[in-house]
Design brief:
single chain, alpha/beta, five-stranded parallel sheet, two-stranded antiparallel sheet
Length: 164
């Protein structure tokens, strides 16, 4: 008797609000997840927030087999200083990307960070800050979903190894 393949539950860290163009670009990403038998879970999008965001995230992430941190433009700063130096314009992801990355790593979930080219990498989103793969994407390039397919396949394999 053949068993139906099951979808792999994956926690997706991403902002609930995005500029319209980025939101439409994500359709290709979600189509790719479905093709790879991955079921995306995000508080405020696929799952309602029933307790506090933090508690709901921990509960949902415990249920998921892996995490994808999608660091997309969310905070746009025209001028500022970082560590006393003028920054000029910078773009940051939602602060929840940092929180959810920390939770995923603490729970030892296989984690992939997808960093939008316009986002300034800081904290756990910096290469070398944690033992996690960071893949930069350029959503203006229509081929970006196919460019991350092999990273997602590796994440799936790793998630299956960890849960056995």
């Amino acid at each position: 008797m053949n068993k139906e393949p099951e979808f792999l539950e994956v926690f997706i860290s991403r902002p609930n609000w995005l500029p319209e163009q980025l939101e439409s670009d994500l359709t290709k990403f979600y189509d790719l997840l479905a093709d790879l038998m991955m079921y995306p879970n995000t508080i405020g999008i696929s799952q309602p927030c029933l307790q506090t965001p933090f508690n709901d995230i921990v509960e949902l992430m415990n249920r998921c087999k892996c995490a994808i941190i999608f660091a997309l433009p969310q905070i746009f700063i025209e001028t500022g200083k970082i560590k006393g130096k003028d920054t000029g314009k910078i773009t940051l992801p939602t602060e929840w990307n940092q929180i959810e990355t920390a939770i995923a790593l603490t729970l030892k979930k296989p984690t992939l960070i997808i960093l939008h080219e316009d986002v300034t990498p800081r904290g756990l989103l910096e290469i070398g800050a944690a033992n996690v793969y960071i893949h930069k994407i350029k959503t203006s390039d229509d081929s970006w979903p196919s460019n991350i397919k092999d990273k997602l396949e590796h994440l799936i394999l790793t998630a299956h190894k960890v849960t056995k």
